[in-house]
C-alpha cells in the first residue's frame, strides 16, 4: 500500500491495498474498459459531492454547482442511459429535468465502478451506454480487525457560504453480528462565484444517513440489510439547474428525498459451483416543489432484485442468473386557485431478465469477457395502455498482453433497453399512445484501447463510440411517443508516474455528441447528452512521512467549445482552468486525528463546469449556475 494512503488513514480504518497505484482504468478479465474510483482515491479526495468524486476522470463530467441538480455524463452520455445501482439496487430517479438524477452523499462511498459503453450482462438491464455501480462502506472497511466497536467523528467549516458539516459513524462487531450507523448534517448560506456574486439558491441544508446490519453464519452465508437516505430541502433557483432563464432571479423550495433499502445474501465460503448472490431492494425518490399558486410532487421508485450464481472454471468464471424490476413514476399536481384542477398521471414498467457473463483467461496473456441477456418488459402508459416487448443484448471484450508492458483491448455491445419511463414533471394525463406502441430503445457501443505499464510509468489510450437509437424524448404537448437518435464518440489519453511517496496523473479527453445527426446543445440533449469537448485533468500527491504530512493538488482544464448547434446561433462554451490544493496532517502523538486544510478554486476562477446546463444561451439572458469561487475549508476527523 502506498505511503500516501497510510498517512491519509487512521488506525481504525482498514483498507484493501490496490496493486495498481496509478490505475483509474482497471483493465483485467473482471472489468475490461472499467473506470474506477476506489477507496484510496476517495480517501485522498474526501469528496463533498459527485463533482469531487469524478474530478480526476476526464471522460466523466458532473454538471451544476448545486448537488440537487448535478447530473453525471459518461463519455458524453447522461446517466439515465446507463444502468445505475447503489449497493446493487437499481435506481429509477429520472423525476425532473431541472434537478439531479442520482443524489448521493459520497462520504460513505467505498468505491464507484463505471463500465463506460460496453457493460457486462450481469450489470443490470438497460445498460444502453454502460453502467455505474456505487458501493457504500461496510463495518470491515471502517473497523480494524480485532476491534469490537469504534467510531468516526468529522467536523468541517467552509468559508464560502459559511458551511458547517458534521458527521458521526458508529460501528460494532459482536461475534457473527455487525452493525453500522452513520449520519451527517450540513448547513450553510448562499455561496459566491469567482466574481463575488451570489450564486442563486446555493444554500446548504442536507441530512443524510446510512445504516447496516449483517449476520455471518457458520457455513459462510452472509445476510445484510442496508438503509441509505439523503434529504435536500432549501430554496433553489426556480429552475434548479440554472440561475435564470430570462434574467429574473426567482427561487422556490425543492424538497428532495431519496431512500435505498437492500437485503442481500452472499457467501464468504464459495466453492467452484456455489458462489451465490440473492438481492431484493427498493429505491425511491420523492420531490416536492410547492409555490404560492400550485404544488407538484413527483415520485419514482423501483422494486428490484437478482438471483445469480458464479461458477468457477479452470480458465475463469461464469456468472448466470435472473433479475427483475418493477418501476413506477407519477406526479401529483394541484392548482391552488382551482382545487378541482388536480391530476395524477403516471407510467410503469415491469421487466424480467435472464443473463450469463463469462470472464475467462484462456492463456496467461489473454482475458475475455463476454455475455448475453434476454429481457421481457411490460410497459403501462398514463392512459392505461399496455405494451409488451422483448429483446436480446450481447457484449464481448478481449485484452491481450503483447508484451509484459503493453496491453491491447477492444470490445463491443448491442443493448436492448425496452421502453423507458418518461420524466414525471412532463407527464400529461391527456397523452394518447400509438396503437402499435413505442419503439424500444437500442444501442451499440465500441471501444479500442491500449495500455503501457512499466515500473513507475503508466500510459493508456482509448477510442470509444456509442450509438443510441429510438431514445425516448416525450414532451407535455408533443406527446409520449417522440424519440431521438443519439451518438457520442471520442478518445481519452492518460499518463501517470509514481514514486515511493507520491504520484502524478494527467488525463485528456475529447468528446463530441449529436442528436438526430446535428451537434447537440444542452437543451436538445436533455436526458441524452451535453456538449463536452476537450478536457484535461491533473493530479499531484506528495507525502512527507517524517512530518506526518500529505500535500496534494489537482486541476481541471476545459477548452473553448463551439460549433455544436446548427439550429440557431449559440454562444461558445468558455474554457477555464481551475486549481484545488490541500494539506493533510496526522500528529505523531495523536494518530487517530486527521487534520485537513483545503483550498478549492485557488485562483478564484469565474466558470461553470462543462457539464452545466445552458452556457451556450447566456446571450439570450440565461444565467448558468457558476461554480463557487475560492473557498478555504478546515476539517478534523477523529477515530475512536
**What structural class do helix, strand and pairing data support?**
mainly beta
Characterize the overall form: globular
How much beta, percentage-wise? over 45%
The name of the CATH architecture is Beta Barrel
User: Class in CATH?
Assistant: Mainly Beta
What do we call the CATH topology? Maltoporin, Chain A
User: Could you say how many structural domains there are in total?
Assistant: 1
The Rg value, from CA coordinates, equals: 24 Å
Taking the alpha carbons of the first and last residues, their distance comes to 23 Å
Detail the poorly predicted runs: 1-31
CATH superfamily: TonB-dependent receptor, beta-barrel domain
Number of strands: 33
Q: What is the residue-mean pLDDT, rounded to a whole number?
A: 93
Helix content: under 10%
Regarding quaternary structure, what we see is single chain
Give the biggest sheet.
22 strands, antiparallel, barrel
The number of helical elements comes to: 4
Amino acid at each position: 500500500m502506498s505511503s500516501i494512503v497510510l498517512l491519509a488513514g487512521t488506525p481504525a480504518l482498514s483498507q484493501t491495498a490496490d496493486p495498481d497505484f496509478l490505475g483509474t482504468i482497471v483493465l483485467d478479465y473482471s472489468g475490461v474498459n472499467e473506470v474506477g474510483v476506489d477507496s484510496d482515491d476517495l480517501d485522498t479526495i474526501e469528496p463533498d459531492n459527485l463533482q469531487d468524486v469524478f474530478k480526476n476522470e476526464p471522460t466523466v463530467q458532473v454538471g451544476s454547482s448545486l448537488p440537487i441538480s448535478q447530473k453525471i455524463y459518461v463519455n458524453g452520455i447522461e446517466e439515465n442511459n446507463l444502468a445505475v445501482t447503489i449497493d446493487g439496487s437499481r435506481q429509477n430517479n429520472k423525476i425532473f429535468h431541472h434537478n439531479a438524477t442520482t443524489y448521493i452523499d459520497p462520504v460513505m462511498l467505498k468505491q464507484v465502478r463505471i463500465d463506460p459503453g460496453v457493460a457486462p450482462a450481469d450489470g443490470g438491464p438497460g445498460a444502453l451506454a454502460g453502467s455505474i455501480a456505487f458501493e457504500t462502506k461496510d463495518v470491515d472497511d471502517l473497523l480494524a480487525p480485532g476491534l469490537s466497536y469504534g467510531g468516526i467523528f468529522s467536523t468541517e467549516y467552509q468559508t464560502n457560504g459559511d458551511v458547517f458539516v458534521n458527521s458521526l459513524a458508529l460501528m460494532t462487531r459482536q461475534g457473527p453480528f455487525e452493525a453500522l450507523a452513520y449520519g451527517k448534517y450540513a448547513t450553510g448560506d448562499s455561496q459566491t462565484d469567482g466574481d463575488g456574486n451570489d450564486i442563486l439558491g446555493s444554500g446548504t441544508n442536507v441530512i443524510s444517513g446510512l445504516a447496516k446490519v449483517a449476520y455471518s453464519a457458520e457455513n459462510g452465508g452472509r445476510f445484510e440489510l442496508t438503509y441509505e437516505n439523503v434529504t435536500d430541502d432549501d430554496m433553489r433557483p426556480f429552475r434548479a439547474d440554472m440561475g435564470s432563464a430570462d434574467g429574473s432571479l426567482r427561487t422556490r423550495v425543492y424538497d428532495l428525498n431519496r431512500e435505498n433499502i437492500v437485503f442481500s445474501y452472499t457467501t464468504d465460503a464459495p466453492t467452484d459451483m456455489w458462489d451465490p448472490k440473492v438481492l431484493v431492494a427498493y429505491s425511491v425518490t420523492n420531490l416536492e416543489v410547492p409555490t404560492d399558486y400550485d404544488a407538484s410532487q413527483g415520485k419514482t421508485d423501483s422494486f428490484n432484485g437478482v438471483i445469480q450464481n458464479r461458477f468457477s472454471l479452470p480458465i475463469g468464471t461464469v456468472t448466470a442468473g435472473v433479475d427483475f424490476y418493477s418501476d413506477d413514476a407519477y406526479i401529483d399536481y394541484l392548482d391552488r386557485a382551482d382545487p378541482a384542477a388536480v391530476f395524477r398521471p403516471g407510467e410503469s414498467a415491469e421487466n424480467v431478465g435472464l443473463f450469463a457473463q463469462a470472464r475467462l483467461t484462456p492463456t496467461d496473456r489473454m482475458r475475455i469477457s463476454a455475455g448475453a441477456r434476454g429481457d421481457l418488459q411490460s410497459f403501462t402508459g398514463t392512459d392505461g395502455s399496455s405494451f409488451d416487448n422483448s429483446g436480446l443484448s450481447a457484449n464481448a471484450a478481449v485484452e491481450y498482453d503483447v508484451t509484459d508492458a503493453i496491453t491491447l483491448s477492444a470490445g463491443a455491445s448491442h443493448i436492448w433497453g425496452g421502453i423507458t419511463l418518461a420524466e414525471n414533471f412532463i407527464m400529461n394525463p391527456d397523452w394518447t399512445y400509438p396503437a402499435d406502441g413505442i419503439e424500444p430503445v437500442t444501442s451499440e457501443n465500441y471501444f479500442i484501447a491500449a495500455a503501457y505499464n512499466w515500473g513507475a510509468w503508466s500510459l493508456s489510450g482509448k477510442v470509444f463510440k456509442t450509438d443510441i437509437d429510438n431514445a425516448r424524448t416525450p414532451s407535455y404537448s408533443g406527446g409520449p411517443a417522440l424519440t431521438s437518435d443519439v451518438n457520442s464518440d471520442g478518445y481519452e489519453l492518460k499518463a501517470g508516474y509514481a514514486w515511493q511517496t507520491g504520484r502524478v496523473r494527467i488525463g485528456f479527453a475529447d468528446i463530441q455528441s449529436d442528436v438526430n445527426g446535428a451537434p447537440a446543445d444542452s437543451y436538445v440533449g436533455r436526458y441524452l447528452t451535453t456538449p463536452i469537448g476537450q478536457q484535461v485533468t491533473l493530479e499531484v500527491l506528495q507525502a512527507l512521512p517524517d512530518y506526518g504530512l500529505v500535500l496534494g493538488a489537482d486541476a481541471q482544464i476545459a477548452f473553448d467549445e463551439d460549433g455544436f448547434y446548427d439550429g440557431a446561433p449559440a454562444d461558445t462554451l468558455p474554457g477555464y482552468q481551475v486549481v484545488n490544493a490541500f494539506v493533510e496532517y496526522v500528529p505523531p502523538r495523536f494518530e487517530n486525528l486527521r487534520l485537513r486544510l483545503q483550498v478549492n478554486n485557488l485562483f478564484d476562477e469565474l466558470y461553470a463546469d462543462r457539464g452545466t446546463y445552458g452556457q451556450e444561451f447566456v446571450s439570450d439572458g440565461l444565467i448558468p449556475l457558476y461554480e463557487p469561487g475560492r473557498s478555504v475549508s478546515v476539517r478534523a476527523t477523529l477515530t475512536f
